[in-house]
Design brief:
The protein has about 300 residues and is α/β, with parallel strands linked by helices. The chain is built from 7 helices and 13 strands. GO terms for molecular function: bis(5'-nucleosyl)-tetraphosphatase (asymmetrical) activity.
Length: about 300
């Protein structure tokens, strides 16, 4: 389980092993994008430093798009690379596998060349051993995955101070800010189906993302506090796995740990030591298309750390 929001490196960066299906006759396997930086005369994967206050997911998407022109959809988490930074100290780079629609490349001051290469050719071209190690990790894992996201609703004030029916309790100011931030973060994984607890606070948490993507929000009693049952809630996740459609499931703190633990146990994955979530945070289970197993599991807050 990875939590890339944590870390005390002197320089933090994010990027991706961007890939597409191979298009050369007689060549099996994917092609990965390598960039050439004239300033250093090197070949590497697209990546870049986090801006002040920027979430690592947004940084990964932004840097890949800026350096390649491709808007990526993040896939499974890859190992973090740590090495001495040119400016001194330690540099930590969080990576994901990622896909995107190819677009014509336009050179700029930072990147003057982009090449799509097979994995063996990329291994020969890369300038740094840590990038070759990253490529091997990419090659070893499942290529095609899709995200199943378990989200805890945003901040909704104090329950004891709410006198109306609990299902009508709305997000507070902090929660509305979290919902706005989540719209951008969830979009990092591409379009998803949206399923919420039948409560105002869960539906409102998904509203900015739903408006931005045009997706409908459906509700389900099995993940609604007061009606929820761990087995029925886990059954919902398993149905989503069987259907193979990217999805976000927004629920409550009382249910999150059972959902995460139930999904992991049913799919043969080790349950995280702490499967809980803070308000406005989410787990992403990257499901392997071919085997319907968990290829990677990561947790994120809605706020940058």
């Amino acid at each position: 389980m990875a939590d890339p929001s944590r870390g005390d490196a002197d320089v933090r960066a994010a990027g991706a092993v961007l890939w597409r299906d191979g298009d050369e006759p007689g060549t099996a396997g994917p092609q990965v994008a390598l960039i050439h930086r004239p300033k250093y005369d090197d070949w590497s994967f697209p990546k870049g430093k986090l801006k002040v206050g920027e979430h690592v997911l947004r940084a990964a998407v932004r840097e890949v798009e800026e350096e390649t022109g491709v808007l990526p959809r993040l896939g499974r988490r890859l190992p973090t690379s740590s090495y001495p930074a040119r400016e001194g100290g330690t540099k930590r780079v969080d990576y994901w596998a990622a896909r995107g629609d190819s677009v014509p490349f336009e050179p700029n001051d930072e990147v003057d060349r982009l090449e799509w290469l097979t994995v063996p050719a990329a291994a020969r071209r890369l300038s740094y051993s840590h990038d070759v190690d990253l490529l091997r990790e990419f090659e070893a894992g499942p290529l095609r995955t899709w995200p199943l996201i378990i989200l805890r609703h945003g901040s909704a004030g104090e329950k004891r101070q709410w006198e109306d029916p609990d299902e009508l309790r709305p997000l507070d100011e902090r929660g509305r800010n979290e919902a706005t931030l989540l719209a951008g973060l969830l979009s990092s994984y591409g379009p998803t189906r949206l399923i919420a607890s039948a409560t105002a606070r869960c539906i409102e948490t998904l509203l900015p993302y739903a408006r931005a993507t045009g997706a409908d929000i459906t509700t389900d009693r099995s993940i609604t506090v007061g009606d929820a049952d761990p087995e029925r809630a886990t059954d919902l996740l398993l149905r989503l796995v069987e259907e193979g459609e990217p999805a976000v499931v927004c629920t409550h703190g009382e249910i999150v740990s059972d959902l995460v633990a139930g999904l992991c146990r049913r799919l043969g994955e080790k349950v995280p030591d702490d499967p809980s979530l803070r308000k406005g945070a989410f787990w992403v289970a990257h499901i392997a298309e071919d085997t319907s197993t968990i290829a990677a599991l990561e947790r994120h807050s809605s706020h940058a750390r």
